[in-house]
Amino acid sequence: MGFSIPGAIGAQKAEPKRRPIVMVGDGAFQMTGMELITIAKLKLNPIIVLFNNTIYATLKYCEPPHTAQEHKIPTLDYAKMAEILGGKGITVNSVGDMKNALRVAKDVKDTFTLLNVKIDEKDISPALRTFGEKLGRFVEVSATTKVE
Fold first, then answer.
1. Which of 23, 48, 8, 3 lies closest to 124 in space, CA to CA?
2. Secondary structure of the chain: what % helix, strand, coil (to 5)?
3. CATH numbers and ranges of domains, the chain
4. Does the global pTM surpass 0.85?
5. In a designed cystine with 63, which of 28, 43, 130, 136 is the match (CB 3.0 to 4.6 A)?
6. Is 142 helix (H, G, I), strand (E, B) or coil?
7. Model confidence pLDDT, tens digit, residues 107-148
8. What b/e readout covers 102-138, taking b as 16+ CB neighbours within 10 angstroms?
9. Tens of pLDDT, residues 47-62
10. 137: which residues sit within 8 A by CB, 6+ positions away?
């Protein structure tokens, strides 16, 4: 969790002629998103698609259930943050916005572009829901296992 932004740096440094497209959740982004400063400093230009659902979705679906407060995360204006850190930030609220944002991002060559894609907190992939549920069961079993 939180690896995609630093991973984009490594990917583009390893293959400078290629442009990474990064997908990251807002929770993971809050862990390592300040690496955008490094991306700007190195003049890298990944396209970052940040899924902003205001929750740690993995925790929400872990068992035992967490309270609403435990899985909520602070809301930030990620598009503005991108601008402050030297990139291009675009807020996406609809499919039409997404199409336009991708067109703009494709044309930005000299810095990173971050698409702040606002989605409902219930709009998560089946894979993420399954991962959260399995992680919760693993944590529960690990917590009850005696270490000798």
1. 23
2. 50, 15, 35
3. 4-8+33-140 (3.40.50.970)
4. no
5. 136
6. helix
7. 999 999 999 999 887 776 666 666 666 656 665 555 555 545
8. beebeeeeebbbbbbbbeeeeebeeeeeebbeeebee
9. 999 999 887 766 655 5
10. 63
